[in-house]
Amino acid sequence: MIVKMGQEGPLSWEGKMTRLITKLGFATGLAFVTAASSLAQELPKNLRVVIGSTSTGGDTYQAASFVADAMSKHFNINAKVDAVGPTEAFKAIARDRRGTTIMIHHDQSYLGHLYGVKGYEDIFATYKIGPTLTINPGNAYLVPKKSPYKSVVEVIDAAANGTRVRVAIQPGGVSEIGFSALKNAAKIKKPGSEENIVPVNTGSQSDKDQLLFDGQVDVINGSVQSNEQYTRLPENDQKAMRFIWLTAAQETLEQVNEKGLGETSRESLMQYATPKASVTLDGEKDFTFDKDFFILYNKDIDPAIVAAIDAGLKEIYAKGAIDKTMKDAFFVPHFLPSMEATAYLEKKRGDYNKVIEAIRQ
Amino acid sequence: MDFLPQITPLFLTLILCGTVIGIIFGAIPGMTATMAVAVCLPLTYSLGLENGLALLLSLYVGGISGGLVPAILLNIPGTPASIATTFDGYPMTQRGEGESALKIGIYASLFGGLFSLAVLYLFAPALADFAIQFSYVEKFLIIFLALTVMAALSSSMLIGIFSGVLGILVSLIGAYDVSDGGNGEYRLMFDFMEPYLSSGFSLLPVLIGVFGLSSILIEAAAGVPESTSAAKVALGQGKKFRLSIFRGEWINLFRSASIGTFVGLLPGVGGSAASIMSYSQAKTFSKNPKTFGRGNPAGVIASEASNNGLTGGALIPLLSLGIPGDATTAILIGAFTLQGLQVGPLFIGGNPEIWKSMIVAMLIANVCMFAVMYFAIRHIARIVMVPKYILLPVILMMCVVGAYTTNYGIMFDVWTLLIFGLFGYLAHLIRLEIAPFIIGFILGPSAEIYFVKSLESFGTFTIFFTKSWIAMVLWILIAISIGLSIWMSTSAARHRDET
Amino acid sequence: MNMASFPKVSIDFASSHLVFPMLVSVLLGLLLVAILVTRWRTIWGAFTTGPYWPAGIDHRRFFGTIVLTVLYFLAMPQIGDFFPNEGYGFLIASIPFLFLISLLYLHQRTRRQIVIAAINAVLAPTVVWYLLSTAFSLTLP
């Protein structure tokens, strides 16, 4: 079975070659034509999109590519994604007031600051927050298939009953926030029992998986995208895992494409998220975390550029093509113009700050 | 033969283009296979998965192979994985055997590539299950084994180890990387360095600084003597290449290709460790280890067979665990996700057509690489005849481009190049050893993570001995490697005393 | 790191960034002492008898290279800043840099060689700039 979701048209191979050659830039003439007919006066002709990740295989790069491609076409500019990593990306937009460099990052940008990671500042004070773009709903927690824990509720119960539960996370951000929520929920259930949920700090996804295979941890933070196939392995396989919790909100998961991911449908994914898998925030509401991708600008950027990008993205999202691309890739489109995005993200930051403060000794 | 329909003219053209572009990227100091794959990644979206992967895989094969050219001819490793190629390749060039060394390297590369491809095709899932037996402890021991080569590399063991340990220390500057599992705290630097050094010095600028820029500075200090006529003579002199060089090297070939494949399949150990380890093993088991480092073809064979062995090896965890084995395969993941396809333990079984087409693409790419390089060698080898007033400035410019683009456009990386160029020159003056230094620098960060995490999880030093039988085997290899270094250095000292 | 009951050890995550650097520093210090002890004669000899650096090297070419390189690195981002994200900083700075370095390294500056150097200085950066910046859309200064 070949699962191809690329926009593969019925092109002849000559057609494909022509496209490749054009892409390789040997058709210089074309570049001149594009340059001459540039319509968007406000936006720089060459836009550098720096991202807060050094990986070109990760979700930040993917999300940024969707948006950069769409903007290139829409504004008739050349938007290029550079995976420079968080520190360098912040520095790059801090230097550039003209708006020739913009940054795309996700909740890590303020969570890093909340957790006190070196190199992260208060983004709301230091930069201008741009529009939100898309959500990766895949943040997940998993256990070995043979694990006694059948659900996230059982993990919290176990902690309340005095059992030590070790959770592999990457400290200081997106990977830790769900872990903090687990501790918070345990504390609400039985104060003091949050001590029983202990972090095992590690790095990449492969390191987290490896700890689970070695039996060094009971629960790992992972993602639907990278762990889904492991959940389909037979139980006697050392590598077999089971989802216990997806942090995404119900409204978000409802927008995921129906097929879900791999062979796990949206329907079955929703079993592992609120309200079915409940991790309480305050005893009433459930904690949720959607990994939002958004644009960050230099603090003193020309408001005309911000407005132009807001307006352009609004049209792009209205057309709907980007929705399909995102949904095909297991992303959920989520466009909010700059003003609304700022308020939305500030509220999010406030909520998570409460969780982190609540469990801080 | 159900994959034959996929071999279309486009498929073949892409592989040829990919191999050639990859070789060029690999051959330019500072540009790497990883970069070649990264810049071509966006192209794959419009190409479709099979064709896109064919392009990327051939870039990978070409890029890894191209690294031997500057390593042998200019003493500058084209990619980090070809460091060990310089140890014997460049001395051969100095003897006038550059062309021969290149050919040896290409044959070894082809062998390594095909060997690892066969392993990938036949044993991928089984080996992936073996790879997950390697926890922090075993990975630390592997790195430690690779580090023991520092002692054996240099004329003086003490200076060699000192240089290597210095390299490790320099590699630790900056934050204890959160994305590797560290706590993100800074160390080994002053506050004013924070804006630049928060993520430490990048590998590639350091590498081309100490190898590339510093050799230009050494030339400049010597007044840039033009000796093209001598080079012309040298090119024709020396031993001609004969396939018989490989006679007696079969074990070396197999061992190196296996080490390459094996290290490739361990996520997080890194490709450079493979060629360094194969080199030291070749030296350890050689009848006359003292000829290593002075232009022994076996050294080139070991390094090149193993770094091409990586190509198949690193794909094993990618395709059967969804985990990239090295930096380049990490980018390949992007090609899959761009097409909406997840890699993981069920990938091969679920997508037999894509799997077979990848194998075929790699096979053709390896053959293509061999053919292209073999016929281009005569011309490539003439690079030593380009007058230095042209060659050196161009190398300098390419080093700058490589440094700047390695992290997608960071100016500090260019300054790193200069800093380590000067350091390399200084090291040359005070007789520090560059090769162990850079090995320490490359392996330092992984050594730290695996060492500290082992102790963090197990809470005792004894775990390094008691963890598993794999750990015991690694200790035996480490003991042999260290014992040999000591034996060699004492016998060299005795030899010095006698003369 | 608490090593009170060796070989048992407990590492506090908050200070775990210091464990390995400390270990490596100590090792480096020991090696330095070992080198000084075994080779103090050679080292002392090198200190007491000349010639001292930078005697005996080609001053003009060595320091010329360093000065030109520093100017080149300083100029690149400055020029590039006028043309954001075009890579012109690299292109414009590289041409004179290459030409001057070539001139510096030439021994006999015949007209022919100067012309070759000039052509190379224009051609090489242009080709590199075109291929990388345009064809592969890599970011250049």
TrEMBL record, chain B:
Membrane-spanning residues: 12-41, 53-73, 104-128, 140-173, 196-218, 327-348, 354-377, 389-404, 464-487
Domain DUF112 as annotated: residue spans: 12-439
Keywords from the named record: Membrane, Transmembrane, Transmembrane helix
Origin superkingdom: Bacteria
Protein name: DUF112 domain-containing protein
UniProtKB/TrEMBL annotation, chain C:
Name of the protein: Tripartite tricarboxylate transporter
Domain DUF1468 positions: 19-141
Organism: Phyllobacterium salinisoli
Bilayer-crossing regions: 20-38, 59-76, 88-107, 114-132
Superkingdom as given in the UniProt entry: Bacteria
Pfam family, one: TctB
Keywords, comma-separated and alphabetical: Membrane, Transmembrane, Transmembrane helix
